[in-house]
């Protein structure tokens, strides 16, 4: 981050230069010297800013899907938002979460390896309370889950992974499945302590209860698809990818659209006096010869050249020629 000088610091610097206390040439030499930046090998940078921005976009959709899912399941006000997406060592993540929490360990084929959805006890127990008929209040004391509570929790978060699958659909087709539910972080070792992870933090509010949901994705798990997390690939794939059912629906609607088709026998211009004087049997001369083809328009565009005729005592037009796309009419006036 670039340091910004205050006005007082700028004035002091100018005064030092003018009085000779500070040499401008020395400053230039300092600027030309190589800058040294400290690098911590325990906090290896594996995700670029581009990757983190893509992960943010993906999980903003995940947060919206989760909000809809939990609101329907819990029948109360639920609000979930992405707070931060960062990279840090796995060991640091483990030390940052409570000693007693809800850890949903899952896999997502075709990716190899395990990921974790950590839910703060306040949020998890509020969900549990709502599912069992309560008001969704946070517990006064966090205790170990009973067998029945564990089963309820597993059912809640098993279906929540459908939202994760939908959010990642623009990048890869995942099949998340819950492998285990733990409450003690010390018993969970999915990667080595120094492995870099992407941590997506979601602020969660259920009624009056607030807490965090953290999604831990090890770099080694999503390394095979890192190239798909570039902004260019993300936008291109969004433009090109359409679900088959969406294409079928679009084709069906277009095929049922109705367009006016008009076969023009010809044109003629007469005065108002002549028009008012028309009687049965009078003939109006058109600008077309009888051996010339009829212009058939679809909407306002000339599409076909045809010949008049009848089919089963009904007037009809036989298509003799298809006008090339973009061809201009010769007789517009």
From TrEMBL:
Pfam family of the protein (one): FliM
InterPro entries hit by this protein: CheC-like_sf, Flag_FliM, FliN-like_C, SpoA-like_sf
GO cellular component: bacterial-type flagellum basal body; plasma membrane
SUPFAM superfamilies: CheC-like, Surface presentation of antigens (SPOA)
Top-level taxon of origin: Bacteria
Keyword Cell membrane carried by entry: yes
Keyword annotations of the record: Bacterial flagellum, Cell membrane, Cell projection, Chemotaxis, Cilium, Flagellar rotation, Flagellum, Membrane
Main subcellular location: other
Keyword Amino-acid biosynthesis: no
Subcellular location: Bacterial flagellum basal body; Cell membrane
BP GO annotations: bacterial-type flagellum-dependent swarming motility; positive chemotaxis
Flagellar motor switch protein FliN-like C-terminal domain location: 253-323
GO molecular function, one term: cytoskeletal motor activity
PANTHER family: FLAGELLAR MOTOR SWITCH PROTEIN FLIM (PTHR30034), YOP PROTEINS TRANSLOCATION PROTEIN Q (PTHR30034:SF6)
Family to which the UniProt record says this protein belongs: Belongs to the FliM family.
Protein name in the entry: Flagellar motor switch protein FliM
